[in-house]
Design brief:
alpha/beta, Rossmann fold, 6-stranded parallel sheet, 12 helices, 12 strands, about 35% helix
Length: about 350
């Protein structure tokens, strides 16, 4: 098969992890995947005065994709071409496969998501919650999680005993909001274990919880930083609120922690709950007391934490590695395009 993916842009996370990382693994299973990365963002600028020129430029660029995408067996469309707006998706050469890893149907009554799905041969969703919604608009829907590069991200054979104990979080600035409700729980856990550090990897430190500023070791995000940093932590955390948007998240940072061989504490929301139920890889935390006790339990039981980390690594290798995800893409796309 020869496919082409239209992504949201060069540095968009969904492009980096759901498309670019897959390219060599898809090649191994007989799929050539090319990319079209627009220069103009799918998201409008904040200034109202700039939105009309932005829309004209963005649509003009995407019109060129109609010709540039021809000659392939299918076009993978990552979300809608222009955020929240139905546009030229139906003009792209078919067959078309819509790839979705967020609850985009919550924006503007889902008009753009519904339009893109109805224009597609099939929809690939990052989790079952998304698949349930898109099944109303397309009769072919498959769940394919975001894969982890287990060749690059690996546990370290033995953690340096000189390293202080640590709790870690990695993510974008938009998701720092989920740390605020558990800030006091984190502070109590840090105080209970002498020398314990809170590591934050993010593109901005602006919205860090003020209660934790004296406890945080901040590292600015850069490509592939997780390979060097995550295996050095003792615990990875993924707090979330429970709402329609967060249920659509694909547990990616949770899977990154597990690939690095470290146990997790996470809100059992959406796919997080599914991963936590698959193996003994860490603890679910619903309340502030849950967070404090789970973190202290893992920090003070290194043998149990190592066992959970090893369980997590095996789980990711078995179900979420890019090798396995590439096979699922091959089987799904092959089935849809041959029928």
């Amino acid at each position: 098969m020869h496919l082409i993916a239209i992504t949201g842009g060069l540095n968009v996370p969904s492009r980096r992890y759901r498309i670019r990382a897959l390219v060599p693994y898809l090649r191994d299973v007989g799929i050539q995947l090319d990319e079209l990365c627009p220069r103009s963002s799918r998201y409008p600028p904040r200034s109202q005065w700039l939105r009309l020129p932005w829309l004209i430029a963005a649509l003009s660029e995407r019109l060129t994709f109609i010709a540039r995408a021809r000659g392939r067996d299918a076009v993978i469309l990552q979300r809608e071409l222009i955020s929240t707006l139905p546009t030229i998706e139906s003009l792209l050469p078919g067959p078309r496969i819509l790839d979705v890893d967020d609850a985009i149907f919550l924006r503007r009554r889902g008009r753009a998501a519904r339009h893109a799905a109805r224009c597609s041969t099939g929809v690939v969703c990052g989790n079952g919650y998304l698949a349930e919604h898109f099944a109303a608009w397309c009769h072919r829907v498959a769940v394919i999680p975001t894969g982890i590069d287990t060749k690059a991200l690996q546990p370290i054979p033995a953690r340096d005993p000189e390293l202080p104990p640590s709790i870690g979080w990695i993510g974008s600035a938009a998701n720092l909001q989920y740390l605020h409700p558990i800030a006091n729980s984190l502070r109590r856990a840090l105080a209970a274990v002498p020398g314990c550090e809170l590591h934050i990897i993010c593109d901005s430190a602006r919205d860090l919880p003020p209660e934790l500023r004296g406890h945080i070791r901040f590292t600015r995000w850069r490509p592939d930083i997780e390979v060097a940093e995550l295996p050095r932590w003792n615990i990875g955390i993924m707090p979330l609120a429970d709402n329609s948007w967060t249920r659509g998240k694909c547990a990616f940072k949770l899977l990154q922690y597990l690939a690095a061989g470290i146990p997790v504490v996470a809100s059992p929301v959406g796919m997080n709950g599914e991963v936590l139920a698959e193996a003994a890889v860490g603890h679910a935390a619903n309340t502030n007391d849950d967070w404090t006790s789970a973190l202290i339990s893992l920090l003070t039981d290194p043998d149990g934490a190592r066992t959970m980390g090893a369980n997590g690594r095996r789980l990711v290798e078995r179900r979420y590695s890019l090798t396995e995800i590439a096979k699922r893409w091959r089987d799904t796309a092959g089935s849809w395009l041959s029928s």
